[in-house]
């Protein structure tokens, strides 16, 4: 499994019983989940899909991202991404679109 340090994401979050989405304008998927290989280590990859499962283990968040091709595990480590990004990763829930 690959740890993608920079992962562009959008998420839905609940605020006063309404769901809001951050803009995905200008983003374009570079790969599907099953297309990412060891050759992409060190490069920027943009994936899009649905959160299948999210597990917050304190300083690390594991997210199983699902698209039509399969599932990719994304790992967010505190310190590898900015604090705002890590906080967003911790709020991801099943079926959120990112």
Task: Write a structural description.
There is one protein chain. Helix content is 8%, strand content 32%. It is mainly beta and 98 residues long. A hairpin with a 2-residue loop joins strand 4 and strand 5. The protein is globular. It starts with 11 loop residues before the first strand and ends in an 8-residue tail after the last helix. 16% of the residues are buried.
Quaternary structure of the protein: single chain
Main sheet: strands, sense, barrel: 3 strands, antiparallel
- Write down the overall mean pLDDT: 81
Strand content: 25-35%
Low-confidence stretches: 1-20
Helix coverage percent: under 10%
Compute the number of strand runs: 5
Order of strands across the biggest sheet? 3-4-5
Shape: globular
The succession of helices and strands, N to C, reads: EEEEEH
**H/I helix tally:** 1
Radius of gyration: 13 Å
In whole angstroms, how far apart are the ends? 19 Å
Helix and strand composition category: mainly beta
Question: Nutshell version of this structure?
Answer:
The chain is mainly beta.
Note the main attributes of this structure.
3-stranded antiparallel beta sheet; mainly beta; single chain; 8% helix; 98 residues; two-stranded antiparallel ribbon
Blueprint (SSEs and pairs):
Blueprint: E1 12-15, E2 18-21, E3 50-56, E4 60-67, E5 70-77, H1 83-90
């Amino acid at each position: 499994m690959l740890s993608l340090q920079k992962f562009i994401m959008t998420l839905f979050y609940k605020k006063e019983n309404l769901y809001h989405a951050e803009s995905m304008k200008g983003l374009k998927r570079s790969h599907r989940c099953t297309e990412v290989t060891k050759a992409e280590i060190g490069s920027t990859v943009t994936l899009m899909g649905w959160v299948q499962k999210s597990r917050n283990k304190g300083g690390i968040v594991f997210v199983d991202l699902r698209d039509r091709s399969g599932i990719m595990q994304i790992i967010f480590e505190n310190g590898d991404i900015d604090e705002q990004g890590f906080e967003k990763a911790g709020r991801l829930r099943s079926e959120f679109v990112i």
